[in-house]
């Protein structure tokens, strides 16, 4: 049974447990609770919530540093919860990033060509908290797959390396959003789309969409896509799913290193 059909069946039965799909070196896990999606992980890097909010203009680096320091005092709390309790961002801001991550991970799992799929049932209380409906997540993931194929045809896949064009800085009639600045300042002719996405805290689809808009604006150039381009959303990397709800909201030590490297430059560009 294909993965989407399996998820629909689990939703219809109100099942709880983990659906694991393995295709070569790529491994993905979708947790369901009482027929609803609880979480989805893919054996690839997950974008960091903190840097995603900073580069999206929702949060300052100073406030992120304060939240990370608070989280280190209360390690049982997720960064997203700390940010909301401190009043630095809204719950909607946090949930919007988590939704993007969830749908992108499910889209990556659906891309598997010949997966071995196993379902391990658990009691509802042993599964992570229930989230959105299966049908809603599958619809969003399918839309992302279609959008990804358009991007692949336009600028290439996750290994595409973008370079700055002669117009390194936008002309006065070009206004860049914080997200576009965050990506533009990482385009150096060496970093791949995947690397830029990881460092900026975006999903690969988000970063690729931004690069595509920068190419259209004449600020960035990319090599002509080779044919065929591998239609993948992420590069495999080890991941260990657990029965507990996965923390989508950053590794504080990694973010503190990012802050030390990008602090001054990012404050000027996000402002």
Work out the number of β strands.
Answer: 6
Order of helices and strands: HEEEHHHHEHEHHHEH
Give the helix tally: 10
Sequence stretches where pLDDT stays below 50 over 5 or more residues = 234-249, 266-271
Commentary on this structure:
The structure is a single chain. The chain is of the alpha+beta class. 47% of the residues lie in helices and 12% in strands. The protein contains ten helices and six strands, in the order αβββααααβαβαααβα.
Compact overview of the structure:
47% of the residues lie in helices and 12% in strands. With 271 residues, it is an alpha+beta fold.
Secondary-structure map with pairings?
Blueprint: H1 3-13, E1 17-23, E2 26-33, E3 36-42, H2 49-55, H3 61-73, H4 79-85, H5 91-110, E4 116-121, H6 134-155, E5 163-164, H7 178-184, H8 193-200, H9 204-216, E6 220-221, H10 252-270
Antiparallel strand pairs: 1-2, 1-4, 2-3, 5-6
């Amino acid at each position: 049974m294909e993965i989407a059909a399996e998820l629909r069946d689990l939703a219809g039965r109100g099942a709880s447990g983990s659906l694991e799909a393995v295709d070569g070196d790529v491994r993905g896990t979708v947790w369901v609770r009482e027929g609803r999606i609880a979480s989805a992980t893919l054996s690839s890097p997950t974008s960091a919530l903190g840097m995603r909010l900073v580069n999206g203009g929702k949060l300052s680096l100073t406030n992120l540093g304060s939240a990370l320091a608070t989280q280190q005092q209360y390690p049982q709390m997720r960064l997203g919860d700390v940010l909301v309790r401190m009043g630095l961002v809204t719950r909607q801001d946090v949930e919007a990033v988590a939704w993007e991550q969830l749908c992108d991970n499910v889209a990556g799992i659906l891309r598997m060509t010949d997966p071995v799929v196993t379902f391990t049932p658990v009691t509802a209380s042993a599964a992570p908290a229930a989230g959105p409906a299966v049908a809603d997540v599958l619809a969003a993931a399918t839309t992302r797959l279609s959008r990804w194929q358009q991007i692949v045809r336009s600028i290439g896949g996750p290994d595409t390396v973008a370079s700055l064009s002669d117009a390194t800085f936008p002309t006065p009639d070009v206004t860049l959003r914080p997200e576009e600045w965050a990506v533009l300042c990482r385009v150096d002719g060496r970093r791949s789309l995947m690397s830029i996405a990881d460092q900026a805290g975006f999903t690969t689809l988000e970063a690729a969409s931004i690069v595509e808009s920068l190419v259209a604006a004449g600020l960035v150039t990319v090599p002509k896509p080779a044919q065929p381009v591998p239609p993948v959303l992420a590069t495999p990397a080890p991941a260990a799913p657990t029965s507990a709800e996965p923390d989508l909201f950053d590794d504080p030590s990694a973010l503190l290193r990012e802050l030390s490297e990008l602090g001054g430059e990012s404050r000027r560009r996000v402002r």
